[in-house]
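Whiteboard transcription, Tuesday session. T.W. wrote the C-alpha cells on the left side:
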C-alpha cells in the first residue's frame, strides 16, 4: 500500500471530547464480551480491545487493519471479501452456502457475510477481538473467534461533530455525528461517513485505474429508558460501496509462473501498482440492517431480547486471467449475491451476587441467500463451441439454526472459581442449485436460449452439535488472575454455491476445533500484562481450493491440523503523559495426514503431446501446443496452515503534551507492526513475505474540547505488500 497523509478536522460541542491531564494513566477497560459489562481484566478469555479514538489515531479504519495491533491475527482482503484469521483459523472464501470461521458482530447482531469487514470504523466506541473458539456464548462459526464492533450510544446532552479527512490520491472523507435528547427519557444518535479516493493501480492497457474507493455509510441509534429497570435500544445501519477496489480487479500475480494469457498475446501486470485487466467489472456492495434490544432488570437477573435483520447485496466482475487477453472473466450478475438474515436471541444474565453467577439464552437464525455467478471469455467460448457463450450458476439457500446455551460459575473459595457451560446447536440448510449455459451473440443477432447442463437439484444439510466449555480461574491477588480452559467450537458445513464446477464437492462438512488455553491477566499501578498459551486440534478444516480449468474457487474439507502458540500484550505508563504498548504472538501450525490435498494447481509445463505429461498437466482445447492446466493432488502433512505467520507483533507509543495558556493539548502517536512470512494456500506455494508497517499521527485538541485537528500517515516506509494471492485461471 502507498503512504497516505491525511488531515482531519472536527468541531465538537462544548461537552464533547477533550484530553484530560491524566489521560495517559492506564484506565479501566469495560467490555461486554461475556454478555455483561465487565472490566477486561476480570474476563478470563484472551481478548484484545481498541477504542474508537485509538483506532483513529493509528489510522486503522476497518477490519482489514486490525492485525496491526492484535498479535496472531491476519486479515486477508480480496474484492469485497474480508477474511480475518485468528491463531491460524479463518475462512478465505465464504460463499453464500458457507460462512466465515471468525464471526463478526455489529453491536449485538451477527453478520454472516464476509463483506461485514468493509464497514468503516467511524463513530464507534470500541472493537473487541475475542480469540479462540467461542462455541458456548456465540455459537456456530466461531472456531477462530469473534470480532465485535460496538458503536457509541446516544448521550443525554447535545453533542455534534464534523470531520474532513484529506489525503493523497484525491482522498476525501466526510464524517458527521449528532447526539442528544429527543424527548423525556429518549435519546438519539445519527452518524454518517462518505469517502472517495482515486485509484492508485494503473491499468497499463487502458481503461480506468483500479483500487479507487466510493463508499457511504449511515448509522442511527435510539435509546429509550423510561425507568431504571427498562432500557430499549434500536439500531439501524446502511452502507453502499460502488468502486473498483479489491485485488480481484488488480491481478498482482507478476511473481507467479504460467500466466496463460501471455500465450495469447496478452500483457501481464508489471508491478504492485499496475494491472493489465481487459475486463473491469467493478464492485457494487450494499449492506444494511436493524436491531432492537430490550433489557429489563429484575432483582436477581436481567432479561434481554435481541431482534435483528440484515441484508447483503453484491454484484460485480473481475478479470480472472490477470492479463489483457480476453481469456476468462468472472461476474456476479445482478442481482448477484443476495442474503437476508433474521435472528432472535433471548438472554437471562444473573446479577453477580453471591458465589454463583450464571447466564442462559436461546438463539434463533433464519437466513435466505440467492447466489448467482458466471464465467465468460475466450476459454469458455472454445470449450462450448460458439461465440458469446458463458456458463453460469444460480442457487437458493435456506438456513435455520436453533441454539440454547448456558454457563454457570461457582466460587469455590475467595481465590478459586470454576465455570462450566455448553451450547446445543441444531441446524438445517436446504439448497437448490442450477448450472446452465447460455449466450449473448449480439454481433450475429442471435439470442440463444440457455441450455441446462445440470437440472435444478435440491439437497439438505443437517447437523446437531454440543460445544462445551470448562474453566478454572485462580485469583491470588486483586490485580492478578490465571485461568485454564478447555472449549470446543463448530463451523457449520454447507454447500459450494452455485456449484458450477463438477470437480468440486457440492457439500462441505462441519469444521470442528478442540482448544486448550492457559492465560493470565495482571495489572500493577502503571503496568498491565496479559497473555495466553494455547493448543488447538482442528478437524475437517474448510479450505479454499481452485479448479484451474473451470476458473472456479470453492471449499473442501481437509482433514486434521494442530496449532500451538503463545501471545501477550503489555501496557506501561512511564509517566502520566507517556504510555508504551507492545504485543507479540508466536504460533506453529501444521497439517496432519491429508493425502489428497490440492498441490501446485497452476501448470504451464511444456509437453509434446505424448503419453508422458509432466506435472499432471492435461491439454486444454483452447491452449496452443505446449501449454496445459492441471489440478494435482498430493500429501499436505507438515505444511503450514494458510495465513499463519509464526511471529507477529507491534509497538505503540502515545505521548500527551499539554500546551498551557488555553492553547489546548497535543497527542503524538506512533505504531510499528511486524508479521512473519505466511502462505495463502494449503500447498504452501503462494507466499507473502514478512513485513513491517509504520504509522504516525499528531492530534491537537482545543482547551474547551470543541475542536480537533489531526495529521496522520499510514505505511510511512512505503512498504509494498499484498492482501491476497490465489492461483491464476
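and on the right, the sequence the group agreed on:
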Amino acid at each position: 500500500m502507498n503512504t497516505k497523509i491525511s488531515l482531519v478536522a472536527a468541531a465538537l460541542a462544548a461537552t464533547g471530547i477533550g484530553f484530560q491531564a491524566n489521560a495517559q494513566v492506564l484506565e479501566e477497560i469495560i467490555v461486554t464480551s461475556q454478555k455483561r459489562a465487565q472490566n477486561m481484566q476480570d474476563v478470563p478469555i484472551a481478548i484484545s480491545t481498541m477504542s474508537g479514538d485509538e483506532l483513529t489515531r493509528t489510522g486503522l479504519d476497518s477490519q482489514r487493519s486490525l492485525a496491526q495491533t492484535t498479535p496472531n491475527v491476519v486479515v486477508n482482503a480480496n474484492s469485497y471479501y474480508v477474511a480475518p484469521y485468528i491463531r491460524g483459523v479463518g475462512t478465505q472464501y465464504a460463499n453464500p452456502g458457507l460462512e466465515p470461521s471468525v464471526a463478526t458482530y455489529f453491536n449485538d447482531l451477527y453478520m454472516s457475510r464476509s463483506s461485514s469487514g468493509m464497514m468503516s470504523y467511524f463513530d464507534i466506541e470500541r472493537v473487541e477481538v475475542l480469540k479462540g473458539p467461542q462455541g458456548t456464548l456465540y455459537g456456530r462459526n466461531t472456531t477462530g473467534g469473534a470480532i465485535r464492533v460496538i458503536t457509541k450510544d446516544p448521550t443525554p446532552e447535545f453533542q455534534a461533530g464534523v470531520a474532513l479527512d484529506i489525503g493523497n490520491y484525491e482522498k476525501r472523507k466526510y464524517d458527521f455525528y449528532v447526539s442528544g435528547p429527543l424527548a423525556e427519557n429518549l435519546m438519539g444518535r445519527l452518524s454518517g461517513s462518505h469517502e472517495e479516493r482515486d485509484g492508485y493501480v494503473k491499468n497499463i492497457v487502458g481503461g480506468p485505474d483500479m483500487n479507487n474507493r466510493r463508499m457511504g455509510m449511515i448509522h442511527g441509534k435510539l435509546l429509550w429508558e423510561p425507568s431504571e429497570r427498562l432500557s430499549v435500544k434500536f439500531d439501524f445501519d446502511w452502507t453502499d460501496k460502488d468502486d473498483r477496489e479489491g485485488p480481484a480487479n488488480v491481478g498482482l500475480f507478476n511473481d507467479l509462473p504460467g500466466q496463460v494469457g501471455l500465450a495469447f498475446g496478452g500483457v501481464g501486470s508489471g508491478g504492485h501498482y499496475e494491472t493489465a485487466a481487459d475486463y473491469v467489472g467493478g464492485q457494487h456492495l450494499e449492506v444494511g440492517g436493524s436491531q432492537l434490544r430490550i433489557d429489563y432488570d429484575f432483582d436477581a437477573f436481567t432479561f434481554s431480547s435481541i431482534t435483528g435483520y440484515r441484508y447483503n447485496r453484491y454484484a460485480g466482475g473481475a478479470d480472472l486471467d490477470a492479463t489483457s487477453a480476453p481469456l476468462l472473466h468472472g461476474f456476479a450478475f445482478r442481482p448477484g449475491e443476495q442474503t437476508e438474515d433474521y435472528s432472535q436471541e433471548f438472554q437471562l444474565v444473573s446479577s453477580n451476587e453471591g458465589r454463583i453467577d450464571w447466564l442462559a439464552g436461546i438463539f434463533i437464525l433464519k437466513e435466505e441467500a440467492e447466489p448467482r455467478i458466471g464465467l465468460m471469455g475466450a476459454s469458455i467460448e472454445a470449450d462450448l463451441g460458439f461465440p458469446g457463450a458463458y456458463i453460469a450458476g444460480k442457487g437458493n439457500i435456506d438456513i435455520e439454526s436453533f441454539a440454547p446455551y448456558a454457563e454457570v460459575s461457582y466460587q469455590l473459595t475467595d481465590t478459586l472459581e470454576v465455570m462450566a457451560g455448553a451450547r446445543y446447536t441444531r441446524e438445517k440448510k436446504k439448497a437448490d442449485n442450477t448450472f446452465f449455459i447460455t449466450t449473448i451473440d449480439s454481433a450475429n443477432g442471435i439470442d440463444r436460449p440457455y441450455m441446462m447442463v445440470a437440472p435444478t437439484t435440491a439437497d439438505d444439510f443437517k447437523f446437531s452439535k454440543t460445544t462445551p466449555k470448562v474453566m478454572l480461574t485462580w485469583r491470588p491477588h486483586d490485580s492478578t488472575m490465571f485461568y485454564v480452559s478447555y472449549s470446543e467450537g463448530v463451523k457449520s458445513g454447507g454447500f459450494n454455491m452455485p456449484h458450477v464446477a463438477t470437480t468440486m464437492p457440492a457439500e462441505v462438512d462441519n469444521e470442528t476445533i478442540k482448544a486448550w488455553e492457559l492465560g493470565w491477566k495482571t495489572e500493577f499501578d502503571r503496568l498491565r500484562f496479559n497473555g495466553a498459551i494455547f493448543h488447538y486440534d482442528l478437524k475437517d478444516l474448510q479450505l479454499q481450493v481452485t479448479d484451474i480449468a473451470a476458473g472456479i474457487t470453492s471449499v473442501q474439507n481437509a482433514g486434521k491440523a494442530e496449532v500451538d502458540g503463545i501471545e501477550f500484550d503489555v501496557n506501561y505508563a512511564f509517566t502520566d503523559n507517556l504510555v508504551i504498548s507492545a504485543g507479540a504472538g508466536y504460533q506453529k501450525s501444521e497439517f496432519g495426514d491429508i493425502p489428497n490435498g490440492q498441490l501446485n494447481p497452476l501448470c504451464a509445463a511444456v509437453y509434446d503431446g505424448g503419453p508422458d505429461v509432466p506435472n499432471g498437466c492435461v491439454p486444454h482445447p483452447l491452449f496452443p501446443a505446449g501449454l496445459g492446466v492441471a489440478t494435482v493432488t498430493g500429501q499436505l502433512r507438515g505444511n503450514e496452515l494458510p495465513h499463519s505467520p509464526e511471529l507477529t507483533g507491534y509497538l505503540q507509543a502515545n505521548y500527551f503534551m499539554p500546551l498551557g495558556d488555553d492553547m489546548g493539548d497535543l497527542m503524538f502517536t506512533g505504531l510499528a507492526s511486524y508479521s512473519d512470512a505466511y502462505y495463502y494456500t494449503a500447498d504452501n506455494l503462494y507466499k507473502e513475505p514478512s513485513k513491517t508497517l509504520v504509522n504516525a499521527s499528531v492530534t491537537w485538541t482545543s482547551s474547551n474540547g470543541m475542536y480537533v485537528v489531526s495529521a496522520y500517515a499510514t505505511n510511512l516506509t512505503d512498504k509494498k505488500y499484498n492482501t491476497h494471492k490465489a492461483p491464476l485461471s
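Someone added at the bottom: The two ends are 25 Å apart (CA to CA).
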